[in-house]
Amino acid sequence: MSQIIRCFGKGDSDDLLTLYHDTEWGVPVYDEACLFEYLILEGAQAGLSWDIVLKKREGYRKAFYHFDIARIATMSDEELDRLQSDSRIVRNRLKIKSVRTNARVALDIIQYHGSLRSYFWDYVNNVPIQNHPQTLNDVATRTDLSDAISADLKAKGMNFVGSTILYAFMQAVGMVDDHLTSCWCYQRDQHYQTKQRIHSNMDQ
Questions:
Q1: Closest CA to 54 of 88, 79, 26, 13
Q2: Does the annotation mark 167 as catalytic?
Q3: What's the pTM?
Q4: Active site residue 20
């Protein structure tokens, strides 16, 4: 039996990185709470491994009201202070406080753009960018586009949204598909995007 090739992950059924790679990484995300969740988790990862953040993901969901943006925006200083001793999440004071800050900015974005989906996906004209990396060394860590989105979010008042974080976010929510050409997900996503282009052309 031929071995399944992946960009990352051990291949074990109980490996969080494998599950994330196979079912989430590069798959388009449009739900508001999910988009905000990925933005926060990518910021939480700064200086850490993604594996650590995945293990704390459920803790984040419980600590931050399943990423209900409006509810997070109203969290009190006392609530945020208590979370600094909560082992379910990354106990970094600045990262914890940034969740509320970013939620408040997200509400402003939603009010102006209609949704986070519109804000983020308009940057790629609602069509995922599919790259064709041969090796992991070919995968970017930041681009001109992630620079632009990062700069705009910082200007709006968000924290932990540097260009590298934003590019990882774009990969996570499928704005960019960086699966290696040898990865089994690459062919899956090629097929999906072909169908999307066909439907888009039919709608025009």
A1: 88
A2: no
A3: 0.92
A4: yes
